[in-house]
Design a protein that fits this description.
Length: 304
């Protein structure tokens, strides 16, 4: 117990309640502590060169999916980021993809790059849940089924505007994520027969496969895993390994063309680590543990 409260009843209040009332900025939730611990682990793996590197597609690193669930009946989403424009049209029956649905294209792009195939295969849908640290209960499986339905039914429009001398060049792409899918949802991997007949197969669309193979954007899967419950943070941290991940010859990993990705992002006014730190409450942000100042930030928080 700490002392008398201020409600006039004369009851005692706990030290935690008093601290939360007088100094709320010092109170840290369990979720934030888990994110801080996970962020430190991610940073150490990066320093040791033991990253679990996956891949994402360029449109969703630059613009991203809707963070929150769209209103009922809303099937059109548009986001602009400097010279980039992303439009997503959802299926009338399934709606727009949003929130944690972004893990589906990350998972598909990662498998496509690793398997070097437009037709990707994986044993069970629970492998995806395990990759991103999700529980394997009935609620999570229902969410996964709904996420695949929304992703399957979505149509993507992606425009880029560039200046070539005095002329304005517009490049437009239109694609869906995949053409066909055969997915077995089983909570127990041991119940799935080993036959190829029961293997999960997803055939990516020609345009989506070309996009991810031509403009593969490295994503730190451990960072996405830590922040899977915070869609806005995960979208930003998905692209941050691009600057941190390097080839063995110590040359920066580039997204597209001859220009460095960081310069292109700066020109397109994409929020960077400093912007997220400024806009976050009480200084807590994913950039503190996944951005370039991770060591300094985590040391200040007393986690190192």
């Amino acid at each position: 117990m700490f002392g008398h409260n201020n409600n006039g009843t004369g009851d005692m209040e706990t030290a935690g309640s008093a601290l939360k009332r007088m100094l709320p900025e010092l109170v840290v939730s369990k979720q934030k502590l888990r994110q801080a611990e996970g962020g430190c682990a991610v940073r150490f793996k990066r320093e040791e060169g033991k990253q679990n590197v996956g891949f994402s597609s360029r449109p969703f690193v630059l613009c991203g999916l809707p963070v929150r669930k769209p209103a009922a009946g809303e099937i059109l989403y548009e986001r602009r980021n400097g010279d980039f424009v992303l439009q997503i049209t959802g299926h009338p029956n399934y709606g727009l993809p949003f929130g944690q649905d972004r893990t589906v294209p990350i998972y598909l792009a990662t498998l496509a790059i690793r398997q070097q195939s437009q037709s990707i295969r994986f044993r069970t849908a629970s492998e995806m849940l395990e990759t991103f640290g999700m529980h394997k209960g009935g609620k999570e499986y229902r969410r996964l089924v709904a996420a695949f339905e929304r992703i399957f039914g979505a149509t993507i429009f992606f425009d880029t505007y560039t200046l070539n001398g005095k002329a304005k060049v517009v490049q437009r792409s239109r694609f869906s994520f995949f053409n066909e899918a055969q997915i077995w949802y089983s909570r127990d991997p041991g119940q799935c027969p080993s036959s190829d007949e029961f293997e999960n197969i997803i055939v990516l669309s020609d345009q989506f496969y070309q996009e991810i193979t031509s403009h593969a954007s490295p994503a730190d899967l451990e960072a996405v895993k830590v922040l899977v419950g915070a869609p806005a943070c995960s979208i930003s941290s998905c692209g941050s390994p691009t600057a941190a991940f390097e080839r063995k010859e110590k040359r920066p990993f580039r997204w597209w063309g001859p220009k460095d990705s960081r310069a292109r992002l700066a020109q397109s006014n994409t929020p960077g680590p400093d912007d997220f730190a400024k806009n976050s409450n009480n200084g807590w942000s994913s950039s503190m543990f996944f951005g370039p100042n991770a060591r300094r930030a985590s040391t200040q928080m007393g986690t190192v």
